[in-house]
Amino acid sequence: MTSPSDSTDDAYHDGSRRWQDRFDTRRLADRLAQRLARTALNDDDRAFIARQPLCFLATADAAGQPDVSYKGGEPGFVRVLDATMLALPSYDGNGQFRSLGNIDVNARVALLFIDFERPQRLRVHGRASAAAGDPLIGEWPGAQAVIRVAVELVFPNCPRYIHPTARQGISAYVPAADGSAPVPAWKRFEAFRDVLPCGDPATRDPD
To answer: What is the rounded distance in angstroms from the CA atom of residue 23 to the CA atom of residue 5?
Structure first.
């Protein structure tokens, strides 16, 4: 997609166009690209992202095999550094590093932000990098790395199919201000205890 002031000639690929023509939505799709798609975050986007405690991060490997990951934290854990740059933490997970590994070989990513309480959603596409030594890592105690996303495309989506859901709180596993977090039960399962990384809190005897 392009910015609102640009032509929509390159906004969609042939696959999209075939489906648009099948259901007679080409004109609508072009108008949406003209009016809503943008290449930078505006003030409303920034405020919306600052309220969100979760997003979904889509990545792909070098061959284009896709993957998607849920990311959660305190509201505003995804930081808008400026109109064209986002940053978010990568916390301890299951050690597979699918998202970070994909970013290393294919920078193209997409983020989907959803507010389930006041149905609203926002898509952000861009190019990402990840670093364990990012100078911002101290902003997120307990983070293993920081993902930065150079924004290329921003567009809102119709929220009609979002199921309204009341948030009851933040996950207890989000790291505290000192970086500590409870040990997930699965890390103490017999099947995994002998392959945990050196120094993992789960290797210590429970209190």
So the answer is: 26
